[in-house]
């Protein structure tokens, strides 16, 4: 198993957990929870593959589906939904941050393998990381987290940009990939902890 495969599995499982928690918080039925988990875990990858004219990987390989359903079974057996509200919030934050960092890397790597320019690599990193979450949030009638969370999409842009420059230098290896993953994870959690946000716009008072 390569480093990329490992990161892909970690990201898929983490996003499946976050989708599971969203489905539970919205009091969806079993099918609804499965759909939110699947959308979160594979939706971004499907959007990315569509952008580059590929048949989505989830339609050709069952690895991601196995990871998603295995994760859902484990979450159900552990009765994750019965945890305290603060524990559920923490679990969602950590799972979502792991998925964000992991999928930013895998998306950027696809762009690099296709020899895209800086913009293309960043777009694929961004779409892979946040596409599934956007689809999930729209499905459950929430404002997508990327539009309201502290430095969420910015983490994907940061990782995608760094991946591009590391690839130009020939420095993409297991060590740098793990370092990027850790940096993205820490940045997302730190942004949440210290309330780092991009500048916003406030309506002018009359």
TrEMBL record:
Q: Where is the Glycine transporter domain?
A: 6-79, 94-166
Topology in the membrane?
Multi-pass membrane protein
Its Gene Ontology cellular component terms are: plasma membrane
Localization annotation: Cell membrane
Primary localisation category: membrane
Q: Which residues cross the membrane?
A: 6-23, 30-47, 59-78, 90-112, 118-139, 151-171, 177-196
Is the keyword Transmembrane helix in the record?
yes
**Keyword ATP-binding recorded:** no
Provide this UniProt record's keywords sorted from A to Z. Answer: Cell membrane, Membrane, Transmembrane, Transmembrane helix
Q: PANTHER family from the entry? A: INNER MEMBRANE PROTEIN, UPF0126 INNER MEMBRANE PROTEIN YADS-RELATED
Q: What family, per the record?
A: Belongs to the UPF0126 family.
Q: What is this protein called?
A: Glycine transporter domain-containing protein
- Look up and give the organism this protein is from: Eikenella halliae
């Amino acid at each position: 198993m390569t480093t990329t495969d490992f990161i892909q599995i970690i990201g898929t499982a983490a996003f499946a957990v976050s989708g599971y928690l969203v489905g539970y918080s919205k009091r969806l039925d079993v099918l609804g929870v499965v759909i939110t988990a699947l959308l979160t875990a594979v939706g971004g990858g499907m959007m990315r593959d569509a952008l580059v004219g590929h048949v989505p990987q989830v339609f050709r390989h069952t690895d991601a589906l196995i990871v998603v359903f295995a994760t859902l079974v484990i979450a159900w057996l552990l009765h994750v939904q019965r945890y305290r509200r603060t524990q559920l919030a923490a679990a969602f934050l950590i799972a979502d941050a792991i998925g964000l960092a992991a999928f930013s890397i895998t998306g950027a790597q696809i762009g690099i393998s296709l020899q895209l320019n800086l913009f293309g690599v960043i777009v694929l990193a961004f779409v892979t990381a946040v596409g599934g979450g956007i689809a999930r949030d729209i499905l459950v009638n929430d404002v997508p987290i990327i539009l309201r969370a502290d430095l969420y999409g910015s983490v994907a842009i940061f990782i995608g940009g760094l991946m591009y420059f590391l690839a130009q230098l020939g420095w993409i290896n297991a060590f740098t990939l793990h370092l990027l993953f850790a940096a993205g994870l820490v940045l997302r959690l730190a942004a949440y902890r210290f309330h780092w946000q991009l500048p916003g716009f406030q309506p002018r008072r009359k």
